[in-house]
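Before any further analysis, we paired sequence with structure tokens, yielding the entry below:
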Amino acid sequence: MRLSELSRRATAVVDHVEDREPADPISQRLRELGFVTGEEVRVVAVGPFGGDPLVVQVGFTRFALRRQEAARVRVRAESATQPAAAIATPETAPPAKVREAA
């Protein structure tokens, strides 16, 4: 499945990024941004007109991608071992622990 086919709020795992041509600069940049094998990715929002662009989240970072860029990212369904509701996002992550002075 392609990232561009993932529905809003759906979570998946990056399988790989396809190169459309040798040394594809867009695919290389996607990998540099964190779209690497095994990384969880989530579609946060879609544009109002034709669904372009997509807002996707990798880790705690969000990106706006055109559908044609997102189509380069191949994903697989979220593993059943970790339901999507259990994935920490910036909104749901527990607060950081504060060290008390001695």
User: Anything to note?
Assistant: The chain has two helices and five strands. Strands lie at 11-17, 40-46, 54-58, 61-65, 73-77. The two ends are 53 Å apart (CA to CA).
